[in-house]
Amino acid sequence: MKNQKSEKSLISPFFVFFLIQGNMIGVGILNFQRSLIDHAGYNAWISVIVGGVTIHIILWMIYRMFSSDQEILDLTLINKLCFGKALGLLFNLANVLYFYLAGFIVFRVFIEVIQIWMFPVMNIYPICIIFIVIIYYTLAGGLRTLAGISFWGSILPYMIVFPLFFFVLKYLHPINLLPLFNHTFKEIALSTKSMVFQFLGVECLFMVYPFVKTPDKSAKWGHAAVFFVTFIYLIITLITFMYYTEGQLKHIIWPTLTMLKIIEIPIIQRLEYIVVALWFLKVLVSVSISLWVAGRVLRTTLHTKLRWSLLMFLAGFLILFIFFNDRGSVRRLSELYGNIGFYYIYLYIPLLFLITLFKKKRKSAV
Amino acid sequence: MNQLKDIQELKKQAGLSSDFITTTITLANQKLFLSYYKTLIDEKWLQDHFIHALQNRNTEIELKNVEDIRAWIPIQDAQITSEIKDIQFKLMKGHAIIQINENDRECMLLNLASQIGVRNDNTTENEFSVVGPKIGFVENIDTNIHLLRCQLNIPSLIVKEMTIGTVSKTKVVIIYIDGVTNEENIRNVEQRLSDIDFDVLFDSSILDQLISDNSFTPFPLFVSTERRDRVAYALISGQVAIISDGSPYFVTGPSTLFDFFISPEDYYLPWILGSFFRLIRIFGVIFSVYATSIYVALTTFHYEMIPKDLLGPLIFSRNNVPFPPVLEVLFLEITIEFLREAGARLPTKIGQTLGIVGGIVIGQAAVEAALTSNILIITVALSALASFATPIYKMSNTIRFLRFPMIVMAAFWGNLGIIFGTCFILIHITRLKSLGHPYTVPFYPLRIKDLKDSFIRSSYELTNTRQGYLRPISLIRYSPKKNKKTSGFEEEE
Fold this sequence. Notes:
Chain B: One of its GO terms (biological process) is spore germination. Chain B: Belongs to the GerABKA family. Chain B: InterPro entries: Spore_Ger, UPF0353/GerABKA_families. Chain B: Keywords: Membrane, Transmembrane, Transmembrane helix. The structure holds two protein chains of two kinds. By secondary structure, chain A is mostly helical. Chain A has a single domain (9-352), classed as Up-down Bundle (Amino acid/polyamine transporter I), CATH 1.20.1740.10. Chain A is built from 15 helices and two strands. By secondary structure, chain B is an alpha+beta fold. Chain B has three domains: 7-111, no CATH class; 120-255 and 469-493, no CATH class; 290-437, no CATH class. Chain B has 15 helices and twelve strands. In chain B, the strands form three sheets. In chain B, strands 1-2-4-5-3 form a five-stranded antiparallel β-sheet, sandwiched between helices. Chain A binds chain B through residues 12, 14-15, 114, 118-119, 126-127, 130, 134, 137-138, 141, 144-145, 147-149, 151-153, 264, 266-271, 273-274, 276-278, 280-281, 284, and chain B through 301-302, 304-307, 310, 412-416, 418-420, 422-424, 426-428, 430-431, 440, 443-446.
């Protein structure tokens, strides 16, 4: 299948990998362990694998939807096809809100990380504003720039941060992982539910797909991205479990960062200062992609100018920031978003999938 | 400038200048009217060859029109025209006007352009290399093309001429290799050059800016070089080269960010050493951009990051410094910039003295007066040194410029500020384009095949193809010889 969009705005299938994993790995990787062990304890690493597998299935469904019908170009059209014009519009607007919220949560949580780990007493508003300016600068370059920055924004942090975990290896206690299976199936399922929050972001493919040069060839990169994310989460989960005892982990809010504090190399210590700063690149990618998707959905439904909707979105960030200025409210908001995301992934997408499948069957029967 | 109507008007206007000569040559019963700028032509040549030949003519043909002069003396570079625009243009390029009658519309233009003022020495002035040829370009365009043609001995090396500049009427030349360079690049360059409206073209670096894709950028979008090997290499890999008359610098494009960190010397050394030096250079750039801003970030916000063994000396050296780190750093960085700027403007001999005065005396005195810490002096000096490791001067200017926003950002938000600055740079270079090609290729968009000649310079067995991102018409440069690997285990008996 070829794309009708002009060649200049298209990205090569390879960059689907960077966009999807860029949107999936955000700020959650710094603190997901605590909620993960709530139910399944130290068996929760199984939940990471289970979660990853389900996301593979969801991704397969998305690709299936696109390839089943040539008329389906993006999410807005799927909604229209499945729910009719009026209801479809409603769903589209809900999607805008959903992606916007996704962007805001990552933005807000990262600002919190900065407040806690780097500048506890500094006025945070200038940082917010420059963050927003950088997001705008990224988005003003279009999807190609977004793909570019998701490339750099992944390569650079990974190259520097992931090798750091090797320094932690000597402090690990593999015995922590035993016994391997001492939790019920239900507990593991509940842990998987909390893990889904970390996997949210794969749905950005709904709007990215029409901009890929040969979209059907991007499937392998999409799955590679999901596999990569699962793998990274699994590794970090295992390392954290072997590093902390279960009791400790219940009291540590940012296990990944706390773990890195132990590293000492001759010319530098307290590496979390570098990691938090570098992670900004990663977070920028995640927020920008979410906002871009929200803007795209809004544009295709209401034909608004992308520039103005993005400016509104970013101004909204500042306003929302004033309302959600303490830890409690941020946490409630992320829990809300986690719940919505759970239903989005496991209910909404399969529903869309079934309806399109059904419609196609009927079409071919007629 | 109003358009002149005919030769008479042209001569009248030109006659206002004292170096415009109008003479009459009388030959037996015949008169020839000769007009030229004596400052533009080679008067000796005129005297020795033209007038001398006229007087010693052996034919007795009567001169009815200018065409007959050709019969008198065989002159190759002469042209007969009545087009006033052409006459004016040629006159200003050092041609002489020859008329039979003073009021003729038609005349002969004789090329007598002199080469006075062009330097003969063509060793490179700014881009040095230890090994390899030292041939550079000079301020004369024909010499430059001659130098290029000497190296690329193929007829498919195409030279296309244009005239740019409403006042300077500068000859600009586009050079490419037919069958290698993608036609879209050539078209693009031609289009952009013909769109230019400018008065005086002093140097090709003006062209570089006039045809660039984005003028709001500190990054140079085209490589400009005075080295012959560099231009030849650019041409053979499928780029387009542009040069204007009177400039020793070729502009080649489309360029990528990494082209600016490549030195021709990399290709003259064994590939392992070439790659090593290239890596050193890239590390130098990174160090140069970040070193001082990291110092600011660490000493302003993140003392905890410095291990205690290192923290001691650092605190000790900053003990008596009365300024915050950012002022201290800016003070020193600007001093270095003063030194560089002064050194570049002063005559060579004074420049050297100044370097010693600036480097040693100011540095030493600043530390003793407790204005700066000596650790900072080391850092600033190293980063200045590292910035000069960039082979292309334009890029090393950019590198030095980028330090300042970085320092300011680091002063505001420490490490985070440095990352903010890095983000801006990354987004910026991702958005940049050179002749419509992405600037950060082969990294973004990623082209694995082209990576073999980017960070490292692979051996010639591997780099037999051209860089794919330039979309050359033929990809293969040469067929590499397969080296037989002789294994030490199987020794010949």
